[in-house]
Amino acid sequence: MDRETFNSLVKDSVIKKKTHFRELLSGVKIFQKMDGSEMERLVDTVRVENHEANDYVCKEGDEGECLYIVDKGHLIAEKEIDGEVKQVFEYEPTSYFG
Q: Which residues contact residue 48 at a Cβ distance below 8 angstroms, ignoring those fewer than 6 apart?
């Protein structure tokens, strides 16, 4: 593959990712009043984490270092109550926590 083709593929990939993140973040209630330049700065900070079913994203008491936004799928929040683990919340796309 020549350099020009490679660069074109990389640029297209970056544009698609940024477009997806912009659309996702625009659907998150706390970001809906941002102007274009604020949204672009936010889009540039997005870092993707993928998790498998039954993975823990974070646990109660973990130091909060970031804001998680659900892109695809569903997550549940569990809490031990009276010695029993119970579901206390369900997150769906555009939900956030952290």
A: 71
Could you tell me where the DSSP H helices lie in the chain?
Answer: 3-26, 36-45
pLDDT over 90 at 81, yes or no: yes
Cβ-in-10-Å burial (0-12, 13-18, 19+) of 69 comes to: buried
55's CB contacts (< 8 A; 6+ apart) are: none
State how far the Cα of 98 lies from the Cα of 78, in Å rounded to an integer: 14
- Single-letter amino acid, residue 75: L
Q: State mean pLDDT over 68-80.
A: 94
Side-chain half-sphere CA neighbours of 6 within 13 A: 3
Give residue for tokens 């119970």: 86
